[in-house]
Amino acid sequence: MEPLLSLRDVRAGYGETQVLDGVSLDVHEGETVALIGRNGVGKTTTLRSILGAITPTAGTITYDGEDITELDPVKTVKLGVGLVPEERRVFPGLSVEENLRLGSYGGSDTENRRSVEEVLDTFENLSRRRESRGVDLSGGEQQMLSVGRALVAGADLLMLDEPTEGLAPLIVDRVAELIEEINDEGITVLLVEQNVSVTLELADRVYILDKGQVVYEGTPAELDEDESVLDRYLGVSV
Ligand SMILES: Nc1ncnc2c1ncn2[C@@H]1O[C@H](COP(=O)(O)OP(=O)(O)OP(=O)(O)O)[C@@H](O)[C@H]1O
Ligand SMILES: [Mg+2]
């Protein structure tokens, strides 16, 4: 089967600075694929290239059989690619419900779109706080709101950039469960993470990025058997 998303030898960067030095990876429909690596190796840049926020200088990106290498973010989102960015971007002065409703402007043409009410039904903790303003939410609640808004915008492929960063351990578990639920409902997930245990728990396959290149690809079970890999590229042992 053709991969849903495919990157081939993608090079990209900022001005004169090349960050991605020929990244190739595949994400199949229904998978949860994790992209991990140290700070500054190009994980966010990879997601930005897929979304079209930056245009690769070489290589190709295909989504659902279509070449999206040069597509801008509005068009990429319309095809059903969603991004929950690192900075979350919750609007502080708007309520939970208003923040969610923003997801319904623009967005995608996919059938995977959720209504604000459907998202509130899934995220009970947000439902309880539907009138609260963004500024009054905890980090975990903001993260869930940001994920919820992407679901309202509609995504067949949801890309999450370090969704558990800075969250308390209990909340990390809740966010991990949520990602699992979303994937179970048929949404393909591309997950950038620094939290190795969350990665190994959620991912079907893992890519490790180092200095703008994929240096390892394997299943969590394969990674478990070869602990030196994590040590070498992430400086962690599990
Ligand atoms: N807007 C930008 N302009 C110039 N350089 C940038 C920009 N954004 C990122 N970079 C540089 O590109 C490199 C890769 O950054 P990127 O954000 O992709 O890394 P990352 O793997 O997501 O790291 P982190 O784990 O810290 O989020 C870094 O050296 C970074 O300083
Ligand atoms: Mg990043």
From TrEMBL:
Domain ABC transporter, first and last residues per copy: 5-236
Keywords carried by this UniProt record: Amino-acid transport, ATP-binding, Nucleotide-binding, Transport
GO BP terms: L-amino acid transport
Gene3D superfamilies: P-loop containing nucleotide triphosphate hydrolases
Gene Ontology terms, MF aspect: ATP binding; ATP hydrolysis activity; branched-chain amino acid transmembrane transporter activity
Pfam families linked to this entry: ABC_tran (PF00005)
Family of this protein: Belongs to the ABC transporter superfamily.
Record-given protein name: Branched-chain amino acid transport system ATP-binding protein
The species this protein was found in: Halogranum gelatinilyticum
